Amino acid sequence: MSERVLRGSRLGSVSYETDRDTDLAPRQMVEYACPRGHRFTVPFATEAELPSTWQCTLCSAVALLTDGAPPEEKAGKPPRTHWDMLLERRSVDDLEVLLTERLELLRGAESGGRKTA
Ligand SMILES: [Zn+2]
Fold this sequence. Notes:
- The protein has two domains: 52 residues, RNA polymerase-binding protein A (Rubrerythrin, domain 2, Single Sheet); 33 residues.
- The protein is 45% helix and 18% strand.
- It is built from five helices and four strands, in the order ααββββααα.
- A four-stranded antiparallel sheet has the order 2-1-4-3, with no helix packed on it.
- Zinc ion (ZN) binds next to loops.
């Protein structure tokens, strides 16, 4: 039956070579986004394991697979440090005042402690 289909197509304008190409494993176009904003697609066989990164075709940077989570989320914000959290509650001016107070206390305690010597 399939032979008959092939023969039929050979009679038409479509060449046998083209038919063979369509018989190849099904493909998928996988999109990657590079940190410089380039987006490009790479063809993979559907059963292929997709690499999570691919070299950008435009600038050779490491591009990330855009399948699923958007790349902005993957890049993410850097984790908040204690310093960041501190700054959310107090301004740098506040912190400087606190620091000077602390330093004065320390110096006071130090000189006070040495007075006996
Ligand atoms: Zn790029």
